[in-house]
Amino acid sequence: MKRSERRGDRKPNHIVSIKQFHNLRILNRLFALADKLQHMPPGQKPLSGKTLATIFFEPSTRTRLSFEIAMYKMGGNVLTTENAQASSSSVKGESLPDTIRTIANYADAIVLRHPEKDAAHTAAQISPVPIINAGDGAGEHPTQALLDLYTLKQRLGVIKNLKIAITGDLLYSRTAHSLMFLLSLYKNTEVFLVSPRQLRLPAKYKNNLRIHEVESLREVTTALDAMYITRIQKERFKSKQEYKRLNQTYQLNPKNLECLKKRGVILSPLPRNQEIPPEIDTDPRAAYFEQAQNGVYVRMALLHLLLKNG
Ligand code: NCD
What mean pLDDT do residues 192-208 have? Predict the structure, then answer.
């Protein structure tokens, strides 16, 4: 019997949008599981016999590798296509649904990164195994937002009356889009959206938050608990000239970091270009490499939830 038939009529659980994580109970359960799996005794293999496929049509370092190590740490296997836009049958004109239908015969879940906004949704509609959205163009990146929040909670303890600035390319940054939704679940959150006019956050991601839109960190006079720094997304610009001009816009420095509290947090999904100079790395508030580490634990928890009893 074919694997997809064996799975019968059970509907797989997909992770397509951050909106699926719509209350603090769900989030706290996920984070408690991430804490527990981080300290899993050696030798335990909760996902032994399970296979994860990671299919990336756009470049990635952290997301793909952290999903893969998360799977290995729990005793599972990985099939990977790190450069699917050049090396999968999409080059021969195969449609995304056909690629997904095929891979579902070989894997128990599929992590998908794709340049098109609705790619994860399209894949989830036809896939008999769980689809995990690892970034769909300038749409969403739900698992990144989960690890961003996990890191924020680890650093700040309780999240209450949070004041956060999100800077950079808010038009194209899918991580910022997903993070905005999670922030809206916490009462009294105040968000400073710091971006050039052309790269403002689309209205649909604004949710029920107290928002101030400004063009420079100099305009933020409130003491901040956190800063979330995104890069200008070169690959999404049609004009190189326009990219170059806007890329000069933001760079952290001791002066514009003055608005961040002493025990505040500097977050970034990474990669960075010039917006976080390496000198900032030794600032005790810098937490971006911690985020990359936490990505492993949060993704272990997600895979465990999707695959342990599946
Ligand atoms: C981000 C992405 O791919 O959206 N990176 C990541 O997954 N950690 C951010 C970016 O590319 O700027």
Answer: 93
Tokens 């527990």 locate to 36
State yes or no: is 141 an active-site residue: yes
CA of 229 to the centre of ligand 1 (A): 11
11 vs 62, residue with greater confidence:
62
Active site residue 63: yes
Which of 39, 92, 197, 262 is an active site residue? 92
- Rounded to two decimals, the pTM is 0.94
pLDDT band (50, 70, 90) for residue 233: confident
- Name the closest-CA residue to atom 7, ligand 1: 63
- Closest by CA to 71, choosing from 50, 92, 91, is 50
Ligand 1 lined by 141 (C-beta under 6 Å): yes
Q: Candidates 54, 63, 140: which one to mutate for ligand 1, based on the most atoms within 8 Å of Cβ?
A: 63
Catalytic residue among 14, 64, 113, 299: 113
Q: Please indicate whether residue 236 is annotated as part of the active site.
A: no
- The pLDDT assigned to 228 comes to 98
Asked about 62 being catalytic, the answer comes back as yes
